[in-house]
Amino acid sequence: MSQLTVVSYYTRKVIKISAILLVLFFVSKVSINLFTVYWRSIHPIPPPPPDTSFGKLPRINFPKEAIQKPKNFQLETADGELPKDIPFTEKVYFVPQERGKFLSLEKATSLAKTLGFKDDPRKIDEDIFVFENASQRTSLTVDVLTGNFEYAYAYLEDQTLINPPSLPAESDTLMIARAFLSKISRLTNELKDGEYRPSYWKISGSQLIPALAASEADFVRINIFRKKVDNKYPVVSPKADKSLVSLLISGFRIQNEHVVEAKYLHFESDREKYSRYPIKTVEQAWEELKTGNYYLASYSGGQKEAAVKIRRVYLAYFDPYFTDKFLQPVIVFQGDDNFYGYVSAIPPEWLE
């Protein structure tokens, strides 16, 4: 056998063995990764222990319900059981407070000028001022202490807004909403990356009512919910289907604006400043729901004898009407007839 033949023989052997080793390496790596994913799915990393560095928390400032709360419930989740993925500890976020009234009216006046108001405001309460533009039929009510406001054009009195040729597409309404809030320096991080949920409305007589379809609507309302906590927990409002920041958008432009109404009630939380607290077990929350110790955020079932069927149970955070200093978790029970009930997730021993 010639030397060249011997070299060729061993070269092929080396290449063959290298290829086998390479395949074994990749198969082993994939197998290890799959096993790691499986192991973590059945043995999840436990959350850090609670540190409760904020001390005892104020109780969530739930508003008073306007309707009588249902008392009977039946668990009808997909597997017929309460969820097992609600953690034993979770974060509570700090909400910075207003620093006082220094330059507060000046800031409100600057906001008003941006929206086309030139006249001085009138004071209607200790911290509430109203700017008006009679020629444009617009008004702006501002809480000068918090910067929260309501802007409105007299759209119910303007018959020319009925039956627009078309409403902005959903992607365009998002751009309009973001542009409006950005123009007045109110597009915070929590709102910029939040959930934008549209609903459709039309003028009927002297009131605004829901439209059955977008094709029948005169306006689209964009409800803007805070961005999810840790990209998994939604932030819920006192009224389940209504956010605390919303804009009503017309198919027509009014004073170069599509926005004919804006409601802004928002206290930005500090997502970098938080403390971990114990969380009630889902069984404890379920018992509280059944004993009526919950907040009713929505229900359209009236006074039925039958029990409300609960279809989903999950952890969320509550967005209050008034700043509570902290963004706190709640356990949400969602069921038939548009039922939403919230149970505070923090155990009572950690509440003032």
Description:
- The protein has 352 residues and is of the alpha+beta class.
- It folds into 3 domains: 1-45; 73-95 and 272-350, Lipocalin (Beta Barrel); 147-264, no CATH class.
- Helix content is 22%, strand content 31%.
- The chain has 5 helices and 18 strands.
- The strands form 3 sheets. The protein has a 9-stranded antiparallel beta sheet.
- The longest helix has 40 residues, at 3-42.
- It is globular and about 100 Å long.
- The termini are far apart.
- The mean pLDDT is 90.
Question: Helix and strand layout, with pairings?
Answer:
Elements: H1 3-42, E1 73-75, E2 89-94, H2 104-114, E3 122-123, E4 128-133, E5 138-143, E6 149-153, H3 170-183, H4 189-192, E7 195-204, E8 207-210, E9 219-225, E10 235-236, E11 245-254, E12 257-264, E13 270-278, H5 282-290, E14 295-298, E15 308-318, E16 326-327, E17 329-335, E18 339-344
Parallel strand pairs: 1-15, 10-15
Antiparallel strand pairs: 2-13, 2-16, 3-4, 4-5, 5-6, 6-12, 7-8, 7-9, 9-11, 11-12, 14-18, 15-17, 17-18
